[in-house]
Structures are given as structure tokens and as C-alpha cells.
User: Which sequence fits this backbone?
């Protein structure tokens, strides 16, 4: 698991129901891109009103603080799989 530091720290952001019928009750995990941190990606999306994609595939326009929500289990599983895959390289 020596590659963890190169991965996104799971900046957890809550989904906003703008693009989904059901309001998300969990905080999804957004992966970082080449140079932008996950937090920067989400902040930019909030400012611009653009959508982001979570590790689980959930797409939404972030607009609120996720701190009081539990982490999306699908995102957590995806992150775990990524960490395990990277760790085995
Ligand atoms: Zn998710």
C-alpha cells in the first residue's frame, strides 16, 4: 500500500439532487484529476454549476456541505478497490 499518497484523499462531497430524482442521502467521493485536487474540482463545480462524477458513477452538481452525511458505500467500495489495485502493483 505504498501508493496511497499518490491517490486522492477522499474528499467527501454531498450530492445535490439537481441531476437526480432522488435526493442523495450520502456523501459521495470524488476522485482527483491530474492536477486538480478533489476539493478543487468540487469547488469549481459549485462555482460554475457544473456536474462532477463520483467514484460510484453518481453525477451531480455539488452545492452543499456533506459533513453530516454518511459516506456512500458504493464510493467507499470503489475507493477500496482502487487502493487494493494500486497496492498490488
Ligand atoms: Zn457514491
Assistant:
Amino acid at each position: 500500500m505504498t501508493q496511497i499518497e499518490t491517490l486522492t484523499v477522499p474528499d467527501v462531497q454531498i450530492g445535490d439532487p439537481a441531476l437526480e430524482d432522488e435526493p442523495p442521502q450520502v456523501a459521495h467521493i470524488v476522485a482527483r484529476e491530474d492536477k486538480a485536487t478533489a476539493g478543487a474540482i468540487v469547488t469549481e463545480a459549485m462555482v460554475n454549476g457544473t456536474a462532477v462524477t463520483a467514484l460510484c458513477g453518481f453525477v451531480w452538481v455539488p452545492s452543499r456541505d456533506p459533513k453530516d452525511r454518511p459516506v456512500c458505500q458504493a464510493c467507499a467500495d470503489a475507493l477500496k478497490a482502487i487502493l487494493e489495485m494500486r497496492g498490488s502493483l
